[in-house]
Write a structure and sequence with these properties.
Distance between the termini: 53 Å
Radius of gyration: 19 Å
Number of strands: 10
Strand content: 5-15%
Amino acid sequence: MVYQAEENRYKEMKYNRTGRSGLQLPAISLGLWHNFGGVDTYENGRAMLRRAFDLGITHFDLANNYGPPAGSAEEMFGTMLKTDFAPYRDEMIISSKAGYYMWPGPYGDWGSRKYLIASLDQSLKRMGLDYVDIFYSHRPDPNTPLEETMGALDSIVRQGKALYVGLSNYSAEQTAEAVKILNHLGTPLVIHQPNYSMLNRWIEDGLQDVLEENGVGSIAFCPLAQGLLTNKYLSGVPSGSRAAKPTGALGEEQVTEEVLNRVKKLNEIAAERGQSLAQMSLAWVLRGGRVTSALIGASRVSQIEENVAALDNLDFTQEELARIEDTLNS
């Protein structure tokens, strides 16, 4: 059956401007880091992507090494673009990244001009695209001059292979320097993608200020701490969860009793707000408008539906915020 997108898909989704750019992103974006690779069931991934778009999620975030195996998430998404999403390409923001290990030798990792441009060329072929909307330097390279990495991003835009450029996993100091270089080159930094959640708040110590001062947006990855900030781990590590999967990035050793005690208290606050823990966690990341979009992952359609419903209640009382702070600091 030919896929036809939901007619009212833009009715409920909230869209936020990315820094001072003209780019708007949905408040909830979908990442293909896990569950869309070659080891996963294609039809489940297809169902999740269809439902996400029907709910107004227009931004799909990938990277060269997403899978496993590396590259297979982009291949899967490329198939979706051919079979289902071809008529809707111009309604979508599609991003990719390079910066982690992708192929053997000195040119398949980190942040050299050689690696970034070659990697994006491969990503475009896997997805069957002429360009991506956002291309990220996935992590800073300690052995390559920042000028070279940023120069590669500038070249990629000028070559028409990306519309916007971003950074991921860069510190506040590295980001500030990158902004200066990119502004000088004439390709401004539009977005930063940091790891940010109630359990990982490092960006509050300087990075958010740098982004606001320079008109750069942000999209938080792992806003649910890879599932820790859901009801999944309230009773330990269930089979089939990320912490239990050998290919998952969440280790069972991270699900400590101390963390679970905090999560249980947060779950009580969420219940009083009429939300699930996941919904409150997403609302918390988006509080105050300092984060443009929360980047979710999913293993089934119902999780996407639950997460998008977080947008029904994004407001917090001062008492709720204080209780959350007390819980996180206990």
